[in-house]
Amino acid sequence: MDWNMNYTNPICSDTFQVAANATDLLSYSPAARTTITVFLPILLIFGILNNIAFLIVVFRVRGMKTVTNACLANLAIADIIFLVTAIGQRLYTYCKSPIYADAAPIGLVGCELGNLTKSTTYLAALCSVTLVSMERYEGVCHPQRSHNRTGTKTYRWLLLASWLGALTVSATFIPSYLKYETVCLIWPEEFSHWPGTWSTCNPVERWWTIYTHVAQTIPFIVAFFINVALYVNIVRGLNASVRRARLTSLKDKNARLRNQIAWMLIVNGLVFFVLLGPYEILSLVKAVTPMGTTAVLEEIFKCLSYTNSAINPVIYISMSSRYRAAFGVVFLPPFGKNKFRKANNTSQNSAISSLLDICRDSQV
């Protein structure tokens, strides 16, 4: 591959002579090359197909058009955009330059648009996950309020507000990448075909980087505690319903409903916050304390966040027979229609009586 190209008339702020034993510091390591050329493309394709399949199911299956699924569809859209931007940008820069983290192929505009898009979709995804928990809480403890037309319109406005809010907050991060700097590099003879410049997108002032790290982490922490509080209340309501159901014939149905929802909450919470948590914690630590080289840790934690965006629909599908049946309706019609109809009827018959019990118990 010929990398000896001239990007738009760069103005070098400095010139460095690269020693022969220092070229490895500026190039991709074997582990980084394997990650970018093998793992990330697979994850990108899987994540896009996975989330698109989920969107198709939600839009094509009539019984899947619920407020919860509207929030999950919103999450899937955010995940697709995030994966395409985050991984796509890395693949493009890798193909265009052998220098690690070289911003020359995308320029200042690419830096700004890429980071703005990634931050916006990340924050929108946080909001979507929280809205899912809120809607689930309303459905468990206040079903008569959550399933009316007013409640549906409220969540539509909340979804729109989440995107606008995410975009507004992300726009404040722009100064963190607004200073475009280019240095000239003089390579050893065997690397003479490599680009003679290396560009980076830096903050206009150092404190902008600190602000960005903190401002991205705070919503994650707030969302974590909100979701935990909602999950605790939902599980309490389900347990109260089970205790009440011991005197009725609905005991088995209530137990199955409680176990399914409880495990779904646990798995969703663990996967989402465990996969995103390490990178957010690292960002916060970097903002408040001086740290040494964290490139390896940062790369691992980024891959975890990419994985989270790729597998979210799998979690919902694997934990719900109704979702599996809905996928069967779209992709395996002869097999899926009866399965979805049966799952839908069972869900409605057992859930209505169970949730009404939960609502009564929660008001005691």
UniProtKB/TrEMBL annotation:
Domain of life from the UniProt record: Eukaryota
Cellular compartments annotated: Membrane
Matching PROSITE patterns: G_PROTEIN_RECEP_F1_2 (PS50262)
Pfam families from the UniProt entry: 7tm_1
GO CC, alphabetical: plasma membrane
Annotated GO MF terms: G protein-coupled receptor activity
Domain G-protein coupled receptors family 1 profile: 50-316
UniProt topology in membrane: Multi-pass membrane protein
Membrane-spanning residues: 36-59, 157-178, 218-239, 260-279
Main localization, broad class: membrane
Sorted UniProt keywords: G-protein coupled receptor, Membrane, Receptor, Transducer, Transmembrane, Transmembrane helix
Name listed for the protein in its UniProt record: Kappa-type opioid receptor-like
Originating organism: Acanthaster planci
